[in-house]
Structure formats: structure tokens, C-alpha cells
Amino acid sequence: xxxxxxxxxxxxxxxxxxxxxxxxxxxxxxxxxxxxxxxxxxxxxxxxxxxxxxxxxxxxxxxxxxxxxxxxxxxxxxxxxxxxxxxxxxxxxxxxxxxxxxxxxxxxxxxxxxxxxxxxxxxxxxxxxxxxxxxxxxxxxxxxxxxxxxxxxxxxxxxxxxxxxxxxxxxxxxxxxxxxxxxxxxxxxxxxxxxxxxxxxxxxxxxxxxxxxxxxxxxxxxxxxxxxxxxxxxxxxxxxxxxxxxxxxxxxxxxxxxxxxxxxxxxxxxxxxxxxxxxxxxxxxxxxx
Length: 289
Prior knowledge:
Structural class: alpha+beta
CATH class of the largest domain: Alpha Beta
Number of helices: 8
CATH architecture of the largest domain: 4-Layer Sandwich
């Protein structure tokens, strides 16, 4: 996947009010690296996320602040994953007066509430509670641009992982319905998304499509070998059927998503986990098959 990624500059001005600074931690799951964003036009700025503590990130941040003749008033953390928060220590060492905000904060940090506003010259951000990727996940609306900072709920490349599919879908729908968002999105990883609403709708559609595929596969028992009508399907059975045209190297990662779909459908009483130790699933109402 990394070979398909476009190159992004370590530091890039994306708009009059937004500068992206990469976290210096490119990789399979972090893409070009964690995006951190410096916001505002005056002598004090807001920062979204702090990377994972790589020396290159704090060096790039210090240089950018010197070039801008600015300091950081507040750092807003989208969620608890280490690649978004571990640079906070280096930030505070450089700028001890910076306030660190996060939903469900660490000791010494400040909480973020849904709808809370953060403002500096040239940038006004409104926090939007969007759990799913993690339970503490926050997105931010940049009113000055009608843009959305999506954190890791929506990425600039590929799809996102999540802790709970039902919660995640509800957050995507909440993000898609934001009246103040009419343009681009700034993701936690990857390049700028040119149309936030369109991409969020594509994310929702993709997840719904995978959910439908699981249901359709479970419904197709009668077309499968007879033993499956008794034993049901494991998550890996479903992956091998649904992803049969994909490389086998993707089966294990795909299984996590299928398990999330099954748990969501179980909560909705559409599927049932059969008794036994091998985690086999069937439709809730097997008599309809």
C-alpha cells in the first residue's frame, strides 16, 4: 500500500489559516505519517494533534512557529492513540504554557466537550464528539473555511478502522449532516480530502455494502454445502467468500471488520452466535432460510 501513496511535504501551508506538519512516522497504518495542523493567522495558534514524539516533528514545529512568529495557545487531541498524543510532552517542554485538551483527558490536561469552541485570530474551531474509531474521538469544524478535521474517522487514503461499527456509523452520519461543513476535510492521515460530504457518504456506503454482503452470504446457506446449514459460518469463512478476489494477505485484517459487522448485526438481532467454541454465526431466524 505504501508504494501507492503520494508524497507529502513535511510542512505545507494548506490554506491561509492551516499549516500541516507531518509526524515523521510514516508506515503501513500511519500512511505518510500522522497529520498535525497549526491553525490561525496571529501570534497565537491552535494545534490539532501532536504526533507520536518523533524528533523530526518537534523540530519542524519549532521552525514553523519561528517562521510564523507565533506560539501555541492550545493543543487539541482528536483521540488517545499514541501516534496522535505522544508528542505532547515535547510540545510542553518547548511551550509549557500551552493548554492540552482531550476528551476523557489525562491528568493535567483539560477535557473537550461536544460543541466546545476554541478560537484564535483567523481560526474558530467547534468540537464534535464522534466516537467509533475510539470512544474518545473528536472531530473539529473549522468555521472560517467550512471545513472539517476528521481525525481518524475518515482518512485521506483507504478506509478507517474502528472499535465499534454501530457507533462509528452513527458518528459518520453525524459528520455528514454537519451544516457548517461545505468544503474540504483535513484527515488524521493522508492528503486533504477535497469534498468532505462526498467522502463521508462513500465511507457510509462502503460499510453498508459490506454489511449487506455478510447478510447475503449468511442467507445463501442453501446454495452452500449442506453442513453449513447446521454449523453456520465463522468470520474467516465469510472473509474467504466475500473477499475471494482479494489477496489472502488481506484476509486477517478483513476479518476484524467482519467480526465488527457480525457484532453490530447481533445487537440488532439479525444474526446469532451459535453455541460452541469455534464462533460460528447464522441468521437470527433460521427458519426463513
